[in-house]
Design a protein that fits this description.
Elements lengths: L1 E4 L2 E4 L5 H11 L3 E4 L9 H7 L5 E4 L10 H7 L10 H13 L4 E16 L8 H27 L4 E8 L2 E9 L3 H4 L11 E17 L2 H5 L4 E7 L3 E8 L4 E8 L3 H11 L1 E6 L7 H10 L2 E3 L7 H11 L6 H31 L5 H9 L4 H24 L4 H100 L2 E9 L2 H10 L7 E6 L5 H9 L4 E4 L5 H9 L4 E3 H4 L2 E3 L2 E5 H60 L1
Parallel strand pairs: 3-4, 9-12, 12-13, 14-15, 15-16, 16-17
Antiparallel strand pairs: 1-2, 4-5, 5-7, 5-8, 6-7, 9-10, 10-11, 14-19, 18-19
Helix pairs in contact: 3-4, 10-11, 11-12, 12-13, 16-17
């Protein structure tokens, strides 16, 4: 392995895959360059997953099916070469070529990342403390989900969120973020070992992709395209070449970014990605960045009649509006570039390079001026011809092959020694693991027996507590029922002897309760009512009871003032249960007849006396008012007589 840093090459030595992964994770380089990813074999996916964010795996020899030798690439980029069979020389060339932007990045992941937020440890079983801890963890998960959601919204990254609610919080939350690992770096971090766990999992591609490090590398030997994209639930894609011919039209529901990337890559390489709306949607910008293509955005969003006019000019029909919008975007971009492309064709015909028209056009669209593009294409063609001649002239010299064999033998010897050392380490570790497993098994049996005993004991203790609680409740019920029974017996005896008056019990003084009493036991003139809670009663229900001829009202609490006033005016006695010593058991109540009659008589006598006193006061007040009025009348008549006498005397004079 060779390292390239700050313009210096450093020889690092030979590495096993495990040591190489550890080294890369520690140093976090920008690029890991390799001449062919097939050398990693079945470990390729594992190697790609282990790369830290921001580190690219680059195959410098080109994409599969279009690969070139390291020596030819080095010569093209003016890099001196040494022994082609020396592994360090190959590593050096790969590093230098990658530093110049040569090669294709190996893409193992979609531009999608799944972020899972869950609890970090088990809640345990049973008990109030576990319940409180579970609710606390679910609240922490909810807070972490809200925090990540807020960060994604501030970063303007599109995402979908699925949650599972539990205990006024969240048991889990799963984000599907439509962005690359690099875009999430520093925004969201993995968390493990606490109450809340955050896992970040990039979505792997079903097939590896290859994207050029430099724009012109994608143009070479591939068809250059103008691609129009209409994003949404249904994605529309239109592909045309640089001559304005339609290559492909496609639309599909719920098409992810990776599928769009693969669909376009199978056709060619886009040099322009176009949209029909302004500003450009993020989905279209992401596709343009993935291909390192120019982004075309119209000055203002295209109108529907303008899109239909394009279809009529092209003489084509489409399956749906999404294909129409994508084709209109691509064709609008082509019309914008058409004058420049026609000028390029005329210049290339003059220079005799018409067969390289597409490659030159693509380079000009990517930002090169026409002279630079023609020079690059010409130089590349000349070098390719020279390489082919050199390959034809190259002799079959056995010396380099023998040297390569000796290098491989030394490498095999090194690997065999390392393998032997690792086998010894593995053997010792297996012995240690066996001892530890036996200790763990013995410990597990002891712990299991102890746990079972503790669980049985806890179950019995809980059962005893439940039974004791039930016993206490049953004793309390029996005791209460016994007291009630004694009271009922006493009430029955008193009622049978005629020394007690049964009371009709109302829980509250309301119309509904009054209807219940009339329906169940009836309400007759002369009945005595017992009201447990008269609060809230009004004047109307009091007048109704007076009209029904109720003899008296007994309450546990004082009557409202309005109700008491109605009963007082109607001379219906009312008392509190404390004054009459009412005996009550649930829906039954009695009061001693003698006590009740005496209380009624005393209260009515009191009210009659008060009424007489009030009438006397009223009579005296009326008499006084009459006397005052009579005095005023006499005074008025006297004044009138005096004035009349004065007038008469005056007339006589």
């Amino acid at each position: 392995m060779v390292g390239w840093f700050n313009g210096r090459l450093e020889r690092k030595g030979e590495f096993t895959l495990y040591r190489l992964i550890r080294f890369i994770q520690a140093k976090r380089p920008d690029i890991v360059a390799i001449d062919s990813v097939t050398e990693l074999g079945d470990d390729l996916r594992k190697f790609l997953r282990s790369l830290p964010p921001g580190t690219k795996l680059v195959q410098v020899t080109g994409k599969p099916g279009e690969q070139r030798t390291l020596q030819s690439l080095a010569k093209e980029h003016d890099i001196r070469t040494g022994d082609r069979f020396d592994p360090y020389e190959e590593a050096k060339l790969a590093a230098l070529l990658a530093s110049k932007g040569v090669g294709y990045e190996v893409l193992a992941f979609e531009d999608e990342v799944i972020v899972k937020v869950t609890r970090g440890r088990s809640h345990g079983k049973g008990g109030w403390s576990q319940d409180r801890y579970r609710k606390r963890v679910h609240n922490l998960v909810r807070d972490k989900v809200r925090e990540i959601e807020e960060r994604l919204r501030r970063a303007d990254l599109p995402f979908d969120l699925e949650t599972e609610e539990k205990d006024y919080g969240l048991a889990r939350g799963e984000f599907r973020v439509y962005a690359s690992r690099e875009e999430l770096a520093g925004l969201i971090r993995s968390m493990r070992g606490g109450d809340v766990e955050v896992r970040i999992q990039p979505v792997e591609r079903s097939e590896l992709g290859f994207a050029p490090l430099k724009k012109e590398e994608a143009i070479k030997e591939r068809k250059s395209l103008i691609v129009g994209i209409d994003p949404g639930i249904t994605v529309g894609i239109a592909v045309i070449d640089l001559d304005g011919r339609i290559i492909a039209l496609h639309s599909e529901r719920n098409m992810p970014v990776g599928e769009v990337f693969r669909f376009i890559s199978d056709i060619g390489h886009p040099v322009v990605v176009a949209t029909d709306v302004s500003p450009a949607p993020g989905f279209v910008e992401k596709i343009a960045r993935s291909f390192k293509a120019s982004l075309f955005v119209p000055r203002e969003s295209l109108r529907i009649d303008e899109k239909n006019e394009f279809l009529r000019d092209l003489g084509i029909t489409v399956d749906d509006d999404h294909q129409r919008d994508a084709l209109a975007a691509a064709y609008k971009a082509y019309l914008r570039l058409k004058p420049k492309l026609e000028h390029i064709d005329s210049r290339l015909r003059e220079a005799g390079l018409s067969r390289k028209s597409e490659e030159v056009k693509a380079l000009v669209i990517q930002g090169y001026n026409l002279g630079e593009a023609m020079q690059r294409v010409t130089l590349r063609e000349r070098r390719t011809e020279e390489e082919e001649e050199q390959e034809m002239e190259r002799s079959f010299d056995a010396g380099p092959y023998l040297k390569r064999i000796r290098e491989l033998e030394r490498r095999i010897e090194f690997l065999e020694r390392e393998n032997e050392e690792l086998r010894g380490i593995i053997k010792e570790q297996r012995k240690t693991i066996g001892k530890l497993e036996r200790k763990i098994a013995d410990y597990d049996d002891e712990v299991r027996r102890k746990v079972l005993r503790e669980r049985e004991l806890e179950a019995k203790v809980r059962r005893i507590e439940v039974l004791e609680k039930q016993l206490r409740e049953a004793k309390a019920v029996i005791e209460r029922l016994g007291r009630d029974l004694v009271q009922v017996k006493r009430m029955n005896v008193v009622e049978i002897r005629g020394s007690a008056v049964p009371l009709k019990v109302l829980r509250v003084l309301s119309w509904r309760e009054l209807e219940r009493i009339e329906r169940e036991v009836g309400l007759r003139r002369g009945d005595v009512l017992f009201v447990a809670n008269p609060a809230g009663a009004g004047k109307a229900i009091a007048e109704e009871l007076v009209e029904k001829g109720v003899r008296a009202i007994i309450t546990e609490k004082p009557l409202p003032e309005a109700v008491a006033r109605v009963f007082r005016e109607a001379h219906v006695p009312f008392f509190t249960s404390e004054k009459l010593d009412v005996k009550r058991v649930d829906e039954f109540a009695v009061v001693e007849r003698e006590t009740l009659e005496r209380a009624i008589e005393e209260l009515l006598d009191k009210w009659e006396k008060e009424d007489r006193e009030r009438e006397a006061e009223k009579f005296v007040r009326l008499l006084e008012e009459y006397r005052i009025e009579r005095v005023k009348e006499l005074e008025r008549k006297a004044r009138e007589e005096i004035e009349e006498e004065k007038r008469r005397k005056g007339s006589d004079l």
